[in-house]
Amino acid sequence: MTITPDSTPPPGQDADSTNADRTGVVSAAPTADEFAERFLTSTLATAETMSVYLGERLGWYRSLADHGPLTADDLAARTATDARYAREWLEMQAAYGILEADMSGTTTTFDISPGVAEVLTDTASLNYLGALPRMFAASFGRLPELLDAYRTGGGVSWEQFGTDARESQAALNRPWFESRLAPALAGVPHLHELLSRPGAQVLDIGFGAGYSTIALARAYPDARLIGLDIDADSVQMARRNAEAAGHGDRVHFEIAGGEEAARRGPFDAAFAFECLHDMPRPVEVLTAARHALAPGAPMIVMDEAVSDEFSGPADELDKLMYGFSLFVCLPDSMSSPPSAATGTVMRPSTLRSYAEQAGFQSVEVLPIEDFAFFRVYELRTG
């Protein structure tokens, strides 16, 4: 599943409903009726998103995919949940067009189509999004703390966001790491050759649930990998995942910040998958990684493929990343002062600035395309 730039005007904007200021910047000027309609649509989408959270967490989608069509009573019995709540949820899902309702018999039954089931239940599919609402649920559960952070300049840490956030990110990235990371790296000959060397030492900073590190271990069986992450629960989860995948002997996960990378090594390559924008002190981490690398070895940074510059109305990817930034990534970064306060929408120029301050001499975008929401950078000292 890939988000592409939206070529249509933002809601409420057309050729006759824009205003340009003296700098030439064009902004949307919706009428009250147009914005009210747009905001109602957004509210419906919020309700839909959180209803998906209920269905995913309670096992309702999975039960329908495995045993449907089902009545409300059947679904409740199979999932050890309450039938009245199940009926209300099922009717709401049908009202939104997520599920299909059959009212031809004496009792209404509900079913899930193969396409919807893939998106909401198939954790190996590149279209899988079933865990996405869990990230926002984790954030919404911390709204009092977020409001306080916004007032005071404080933050809310990844640890505070808890299991839903941790498992959401892991589940959404897992299919991409497991099915696409190896071929993506194989398509970059000089990097593939480096990682294929017998005994190659590889560092993975901010590994989360460890799926990136495990994918590297699977793709390069002669390499040895060390992962560093500050979240103790993530480290435990990653260790379990590595053992389950049969790579516990070659993958070593440690509770440590990226700033501690310089104490390890030397490494033939270092990676930071979708984590640099969360780090309160990214320059320090990149500097430590540079010192940990063997001479001429690359640092690979994968982060969100947002647009190059802020330009007001944006495409869907930038909008989504601003949502993550407001509710998760920026508060997480600001929870550990002093913080660079990067946010999820890390522009390429920001990454280049961090790399230069850390002592890297070149930053190149690798020819890896159609890899979820991400852009892959290679940082080198020479």
Task: Sum up the structure in keywords.
Rossmann fold, two-stranded antiparallel ribbon, 11 strands, 2 domains, WH_DNA-bd_sf, transferase, Arc Repressor Mutant, subunit A, Putative methyltransferase, disordered N terminus, 382 residues, alpha/beta, methyltransferase
Describe this structure as you would to a colleague.
The chain is α/β, with parallel strands linked by helices. The chain has 2 domains: 28-122, Winged helix-like DNA-binding domain superfamily/Winged helix DNA-binding domain (Arc Repressor Mutant, subunit A, Orthogonal Bundle); 136-380, Vaccinia Virus protein VP39 (Rossmann fold). It is built from 14 helices and 11 strands. It has a 7-stranded mixed sheet with strand order 7-6-5-8-9-11-10, with helices on both faces. A two-stranded antiparallel ribbon has the order 1-2. Strands 3-4 form a two-stranded antiparallel ribbon. The longest helix has 29 residues, at 158-186. The model is unreliable at 1-26 (pLDDT under 50).
Low-pLDDT segments, ≥5 res: 1-26
State the helical fraction. Answer: 40-55%
* CATH architecture name of the largest domain: 3-Layer(aba) Sandwich
DSSP strand content:
5-15%
Cα Rg: 23 Å
Order of SSEs: EEHHHHEEHHHHHEHEHEEHEHHEE
The number of strands is 11
Biggest sheet statistics: 7 strands, mixed
Number of domains: 2
Shape estimate: globular
Oligomer: single chain
Structural class: alpha/beta
GO molecular function: methyltransferase activity
Pfam families: Methyltransf_31 (PF13847), WHD_Rv2258c (PF21320)
Region (Disordered): 1-22
Keywords: Methyltransferase, Transferase
